[in-house]
Design a protein that fits this description.
- Belongs to the AAA ATPase family. BCS1 subfamily.
- GO terms for molecular function: ATP binding; ATP hydrolysis activity.
- This is AAA+ ATPase domain-containing protein.
- By secondary structure, the chain is α/β, with parallel strands linked by helices.
- The protein folds into 2 domains: 124 residues, Rossmann fold; 77 residues, no CATH class.
- The chain is 43% helix and 13% strand.
- The protein has a 5-stranded parallel β-sheet with strand order 2-3-4-1-5, with helices on one face.
- α2 packs parallel to α3 and α4 runs parallel beside α6.
- The longest helix is centred in the last third of the chain and has 17 residues.
- The radius of gyration is 21 Å and the shape is elongated.
- It starts with a strand and ends with a helix.
- Bound molecules: adenosine-5'-triphosphate and magnesium ion.
- The site of magnesium ion has 3 residues, from α1.
Length: 210
């Protein structure tokens, strides 16, 4: 039985899917091979050739797989010669060389055809979600390494009350911490309202675009 593994990273934008892929590649000293499925001249044959040429110890990354084929295998990129079965065949070829894995990413797992992510292809599905209290505290600690556990807890408490029923992504938190990188931990603790103001602003902009 060949040892092969495929992964699906799914969840809302800004929760660390791409960042984790980069961290995994660095940690395990694997090459990262990005496959751009939306390329208009990608054929079944060229995809298969690309997969076969991937070096040993490499992670093949196929981002936003929901952009190419829908749940009923319908094709979204009109001029592309790639077929759904061509994609499946290519994925089945990953892992012939030692240490090869693939990672698919999507913001919408429910929009994928089950054949793409069934066992034997994407065996491990990992959901990336909005920041948990623990993640918020860890990020605070990362940016303010000299803060006390009590300060971390009150940052979480302040932020949760300012957020009320809203949720926050790790990406939005990172933005806040970078903006406050010259402030003290106490100043950051007092400024959590800024995260919420920014979230509401972004949500308004989004509504205007739609
Ligand atoms: N869990 C996390 N912990 C720390 N930082 C995070 C985390 N998730 C995201 N970030 C930060 O937020 C930014 C965006 O994250 P990333 O690009 O990995 O999100 P993504 O899940 O790939 O989003 P998308 O679905 O839009 O591609 C990065 O700069 C990253 O450092
Ligand atoms: Mg990403």
């Amino acid at each position: 039985i060949p040892y092969k593994r495929g992964y699906l990273f799914y969840g809302v934008p800004g929760t660390g899917k791409t960042s984790l892929i980069q961290a995994l590649a660095a940690h395990f000293e694997h090459n990262l091979c990005y496959v751009h499925l939306t390329h208009p001249r990608l054929t079944d044959e060229s995809l298969r050739a690309a997969v076969n040429q991937a070096p040993k110890k490499s992670i093949l990354v196929l981002e936003d797989v929901d952009a190419v084929f829908g749940k009923d295998r319908e094709k979204f990129i009109k001029d592309s010669p790639l077929t759904f079965s061509g994609l499946l065949n290519a994925l089945d070829g990953v892992g012939k060389a030692d240490g090869q894995v693939f990672i698919l990413t999507t913001n919408h797992r429910e929009r994928l055809n089950p054949a793409l992510i069934r066992n034997g292809r994407a065996d491990v599905h990992i959901e990336f979600a909005h920041a948990s209290d623990e993640q918020i505290a860890l990020m605070f600690a990362r940016f303010y390494p000299f803060s006390t556990p009590a300060m971390r807890q009150s940052f979480v408490g302040n932020l949760r009350s300012a957020l009320a029923s809203r949720v926050v992504t790790p990406a939005a938190l990172q933005h806040f911490f970078i903006m406050h990188r010259r402030s003290t931990a106490s100043k950051a603790m007092e400024s959590v309202q800024g995260i919420v103001t920014e979230l509401d602003l972004r949500a308004d902009e989004q509504r205007m675009l739609e």
